[in-house]
């Protein structure tokens, strides 16, 4: 849910970013485009890496990297650094997402996969739809940097769950 939430939450923060960093609205387009391009283009590679290196490593590493990138984005003093941290968020998300989907396929029996994929699809849609209202609330309460800081407790909880539940290596 972090990846679609972060892809839509930023939209409402753009005017505040423009004002705070004294940049043009056109230059902030890379905050959205760079994130989407990096995530979409790297997911196939990340899935293949998960096949070879194991899903757990990539999921845990991706989540940890997402937290670090979110913290960096929250503290970014310039648009260039903010864009760089956004792209790093996307790279981290690209490591997690295809490997989480593959893990479902590998761990669950065939008769349960459809239900779980449906639940996951619903959660992704809700996260994407919830991004703008949540982003608006966060920006109103804590400024644009809050949209990145909100990721930290989510990632911490997800890391805790993943460490407890994602198998180290599956035997096929």
List keywords for this structure.
172 residues, mainly alpha, 8 helices, 83% helix, 0% strand
Topology:
Elements: H1 2-9, H2 14-21, H3 29-53, H4 55-74, H5 79-107, H6 110-142, H7 146-149, H8 151-165
Short description:
With 172 residues, this protein is mainly α.
Report the C-alpha radius of gyration, rounded.
16 Å
Total beta-strand segments: 0
Averaged pLDDT: 93
Describe the global form. elongated
Report the structural category: mainly alpha
The helix content is: over 70%
Q: What is the chains' assembly state?
A: single chain
Continuous helix count: 8
Unreliable stretches: none
Query: In this structure, how is the largest beta sheet organized?
Result: none
Order of SSEs: HHHHHHHH
Structure description:
- This protein is 83% helix and 0% strand.
- The protein has helices at residues 2-9, 14-21, 29-53, 55-74, 79-107, 110-142, 146-149, 151-165.
- Helix 3 (29-53) runs parallel beside helix 5, helix 4 (55-74) packs antiparallel against helix 5 and helix 4 runs antiparallel to helix 8.
- The chain is elongated.
């Amino acid at each position: 849910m972090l990846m679609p939430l972060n892809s839509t939450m930023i939209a409402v923060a753009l005017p505040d970013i423009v004002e705070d960093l004294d940049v043009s609205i056109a230059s902030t387009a890379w905050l959205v485009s760079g994130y989407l391009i990096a995530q979409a283009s790297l997911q196939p590679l990340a899935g293949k890496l998960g096949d070879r290196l194991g899903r757990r490593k990539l999921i845990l590493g991706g989540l940890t990297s997402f937290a670090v990138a979110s913290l960096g984005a929250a503290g970014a003093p310039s648009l260039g650094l903010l864009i760089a941290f956004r792209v790093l968020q996307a790279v981290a998300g690209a490591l997690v997402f295809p490997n989480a989907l593959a893990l479902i396929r590998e761990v669950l029996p065939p008769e349960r996969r459809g239900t779980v994929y449906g639940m996951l699809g619903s959660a992704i849609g809700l996260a994407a739809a919830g991004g703008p209202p949540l982003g608006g609330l966060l920006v109103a309460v804590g400024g644009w940097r809050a949209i990145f800081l909100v990721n930290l407790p989510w990632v911490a909880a997800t890391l805790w769950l993943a460490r407890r539940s994602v198998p180290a290596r599956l035997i096929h």
